[in-house]
Amino acid sequence: MSTLQNAQKAVYPLIHPLKNVQLGESFTSLLEGSGIYVRDENGKPYIDGISGLWNVSLGYGHPGIRQAILEQLDRIPFVNLVDQTNPTTVKFAQELLALTPERLSRAIYTCTGSESAELAIKLMRKYQSLRGLEQKQNIVALSISYHGTYYGAMSASGIDREISQGYGPKVPGFLFHDTPLSSLGRGSEDEELRAIEELFEREGDRIAGMIVEPIIGSGGTIPLPDAFLRKIRELCDLHGALLAFDEVATGMGRTGRMFAFEHSGAVPDILCLSKGINSGYLPLGAVLFSEAIYREFAAANLHIEHLSTQNGNPIACAAGLATIEALNQPGMLEHVSEMGELLRELLNEELADCPAFLETRGKGLMTGVALQDDLAGGVCMEAERLSALVGRLKQRGLIVYPFYTPGVTTGFHLYPPFVVSAQEVSKIVGIIKKTLGGR
Amino acid sequence: MYGFTYGEGITLIHFKAQSSRLYTAGDSLNCRYIRAHFKSRGGNAAQYIEASLGTLQDCAEEIESFGSAVVAFEVEPQTYSLCRGLCRTLKRLDPDIRIVWFGEWVGTLRDTDPADAGADAFVLAEPESRLWRLSESDKESWRSEPGLKLAGEVDFEDTHQEAFSDPQAGIEPDMCLLDRLSSPDAAKGSGCTVRWADLQGETSQSNGLRRHSASRFAQELQQEANCGAYSPMVVEGFELEPSPQRLLQGLGVLEQHATGAGFEIALSPEQLGWIEPERLEALSLATLELVVTDSGSLRSSEVRNRLADWKKGKAGAKLRITLDEKTVSPEQETASALRDWLTAGLIGQGDLNVRVKGPGRTELHAEMADLLSASTGGSDPALLNGYLAFKTGQYPPQALGSGVKHVGVSEEHAAGLAGLEPDQLMGVNSAFILNKNSVCKSEKEEKYIDMEGVVKQSREWYGPIDHELERQRQYVPHVHAEILSADDRMMRLEMSEFDFGSPVEIGLTNYREASEPADKETANGQGLEILQLVQPADLDAFMEDVEAFEREGRFLRGYQVQGYVADSCRWSAAGQCPIKQLPRLYTEADGKVSGCGGCSAIGRIGDSYDALQREAAAISTREQLLRGCDGCEIRDTCSKCTFLPEYMTRNQYCDLRKRHVLLHRYMQVAQLLKGLRQYTAAFRDVDIREIGVSLRTCTHVLPASYPSEGDAWVPDHLFVLFVGDQPLLYQANGGKLLKLSPLMALVLEAGIKGLSEISLRRAISEVFKADEAQAETAARQVGLKLDEMGILPASRRAS
Known about the structure:
The complex is a heterodimer.
Chain A: H1 3-8, E1 30-34, E2 37-40, E3 45-48, H2 51-54, H3 63-75, H4 87-98, E4 104-110, H5 113-130, E5 138-142, H6 151-155, E6 174-177, H7 189-203, E7 207-212, E8 215-216, E9 222-223, H8 226-239, E10 242-246, H9 261-264, E11 270-273, E12 285-290, H10 291-299, H11 314-327, H12 332-350, E13 357-363, E14 366-371, H13 383-395, E15 398-399, E16 401-405, E17 409-414, H14 422-437
Parallel strand pairs in A: 3-15, 5-6, 5-7, 7-10, 10-11
Antiparallel strand pairs in A: 1-2, 2-3, 4-12, 8-9, 11-12, 13-14, 14-17, 16-17
Helix pairs in contact in A: 3-11, 4-11, 7-8, 12-14
Chain B: E1 10-19, E2 22-25, H1 29-40, E3 45-47, H2 56-65, E4 70-74, H3 80-93, E5 98-102, E6 121-123, H4 127-136, E7 148-150, H5 156-164, H6 167-170, E8 193-195, E9 197-198, E10 210-211, H7 214-226, E11 233-236, H8 244-256, E12 263-267, H9 269-272, H10 277-282, E13 285-292, H11 296-299, H12 301-313, E14 318-324, H13 331-343, E15 352-355, E16 361-364, H14 366-374, H15 381-392, E17 404-410, H16 422-425, E18 426-436, E19 447-450, E20 455-457, H17 462-471, E21 478-484, E22 490-495, E23 504-510, H18 520-523, E24 528-532, H19 536-552, H20 558-562, E25 564-565, E26 584-587, E27 592-594, E28 601-604, H21 609-627, H22 650-659, H23 663-679, H24 681-684, E29 691-693, E30 718-723, E31 726-731, E32 736-739, H25 742-752, H26 757-768, H27 772-788
Parallel strand pairs in B: 1-3, 1-4, 4-5, 5-6, 8-11, 11-12, 12-13, 13-14, 14-15, 17-18, 17-26, 18-21, 23-24, 24-25
Antiparallel strand pairs in B: 1-2, 6-7, 9-10, 16-19, 19-20, 21-22, 22-23, 26-27, 27-28, 29-30, 30-31, 31-32
Helix pairs in contact in B: 1-4, 2-3, 7-8, 25-26, 26-27
């Protein structure tokens, strides 16, 4: 490449995901991390209140994960799973399945959460097709759900329907059902159950499956009622549809249980995982699915049409094994529950007098801090104000992630690493109080 | 866990005055050395970097969030007050935090108690190793640390004499090298600066001098050169070098590392004598700073001739003179010598500086004061721009959201300014604007220079306010005064105690009285003028001008561009009302506070920034709901002013804005032409009436018979202008000005009017006498050209 050619290239070449393409050098450059902290190139530390992007669940610099990565790196860094296998890769699949109920018996690796959702959609449709039910192609998703940005996942995401305009044609066949918001005081659980029943009654013979986040993530950390989750399990069984839980954000201990579905007892046919699967140290995802689905493919003597080269990379799987080991340590998940409770309790207490504070929501270390418009009295805070607030939190050393679902809820997510201590929880609350409480 | 421990190491703070007391927090060479020292020992020295500083409280809270037990301020004369204010705030926030000051100038504060500045200690020497040890030890053991002046310590010299004579610490003065520092990491924001020597050494015998070895110096020069030096590389410390051999050795290294942009070095008159004329000439010098500590050398013909010869042989090279407090003392002689240098063209007006050691103050006689004031160019553009933002309400986006920038105060409220709690309310870069209704008493001509190195003037109104703020331990960098003339038609703006030479005179005109220009001179306006809309007749006159602009596509009177319409944010584009960010406040009678002059109150003195901001935003939001702004047809172009003056009702405002849908464009173009006339030769001397602007209501190439057909497909950031017959395009998003062909101008005008392709081709045929095929080709080619030049994507064009 000649100097002239280089000179013509952009000074800052990187386009950051989901951000205006013109933004570039204004991004904080993070150089190192340790526990719940990250440090920028100027040496300024921040509490990473969102564990990277909800994935670095065991915090930065975890010795067990680091060691596992190094050891696997020295053994073999890649194995072509199309034609070969590897003990680490197989062991991780076994361990993942061992964490789940009997219904889930097989695993396929992916690289990301979007890809896991993508695969779940493919499995639901192909499964029905293999059963000869070609008319069952529709997939039910919720109106403010988020499943990713790949074509299928984007098409299944209710929340991004406007933003993704212009990228069409999208994958067809998604039925968007109103998200149950009774936990936000809107409507009743009974109404919600009736509404979903009606949908299945009306469309059941064309529904291949339903994909749901047990706790709505990007939409604003909104836990779905247990009764609703159990109801959709029942309806899927009744109508021969598959139930997929997108636990990319909620899985692997984030809610204080290994998987969020454990809170309701509703077990899915397909479980989408990524993010915390190996504490976010390397790209990895997985889709666990039921024996029933496996049998349909087996009976047809077919492969599953899905591959990305790096899926199931042994180093990423080694990190996953170390993650499971850490999560299985006695008291770890209890700690996640306790710290989450403490965080919400302190926030509710300290922010009670703050006019912009509405409520906290969530389970385990998955907390949404809902903020309202204290100026005009609306339920949602103005986007500009929310953005300024998130900026001020960062200036004071706390990284959070805003949610802005107009007409439903606004605020920010707080998903700190599981290694957060009570003292650090109190510090997080202190920063938020100082920033939100005003002077 | 692997990795770092939260709160380990220290936090470094260095403020840089970008203009008179307008600061950013950035990097410096001293900080780079310290960071490198820490890094080489596995430690962490964090740097506080902030381009847009909020209030002192915000800064203190951010610094506290670094978690460091030790916070080290590099303090310079220009940043002394700010650092002191911030240290006090930081201590209030966290009494346990340990604050130290360091830097070459801090070494001159041996007689000052660090406690007075809110610091725990001053590091007087070897900041790199000293700070490292302080970060590693508890405060109790600081007492045994040499080269440190602790808070409450009365007699520094006596206490640490022994430590200074320690052979391990002192060694041979000339051997005290900077070399023991590891390579500084490539840092941002510090510019291209390398150092030959400084005065932060331990040994009192050599005045603390420490220097690089030649090889080390070469290494640093190379390192900086590799970073790509497009401006002269500043080499610090040659003027401190007492040894002729060493100096020549250092210059030899420079010779070997010549850069395209050249070097900027400082030498004393004595050192000049050590260098052969040919050798000085051969050096790649962009600027030579003559550091004069003896006024006699200014009168020396030998020195003058030497530098005159050097300048003659170095086209474009600049000579600067730096004086100290001693050389400005016998002013009469120094001043006349400097006049000779100026007359001979050896130096220019802006090439005089003063470096003052310590916190003292030196009185100046008139001639010296005039000379030094004139070097500042008569004003401080950044301060003046800030003031104009206060008057117009139009603040640049980067100035918003970090505390109040300006607080307007009437004379009767001046005594209670500290009650506003500026530390909590006002940004670090802010000012009080005192409105003096009474004609000012004649000022005493007491001029002086202090550690900030600029000429100041004792002002009767400034002293008491400054004193009161200091007494209340509140930091506000500036208090400006608008001093009205007896007839209320002129105003003199005095910026704090600064004397920038000629005073800033601003005309105050009620819009209705803005006079019809008699000739070209007045058509283009003279000086600064603020146009006030204080009653309906002013508004009528303003709207008449707007209507004429919409009709004619040009300004007919100079004041429309030259003048500044007070509170012009009210008439500007969507998003231009800054009330929710509250950059300005006014104190009113009975302790009330408003966000716009003459409008309803949003709180009282003593209310917090957040409370005032919340109230302003709440009133604004409610008012916009009442008016139905969200569903209004001009919502995308109206600034939606919700704090209206008494002479205008809500309905009148909405009605005016709807009747004049190009009002926002009028304000944009007036602002744009101000800038273009200031910075662009093509616009500078042109009669304002000869500048055309293409609008939906008036085009200059496209015949008026073509009405608007749809939404514009030329975006708002493109301005089509005409100087005489020459069409030009200004791209506001990139600040580019391009010449256009008449055909391109026509296409863009068609885009402004939202013409279809068919109409566009018809217009081309008509204007350029082309047949249909030629017009189609021309339209296509212009479209491709605009696309290729990144001006207008083809996709925006109507099909």
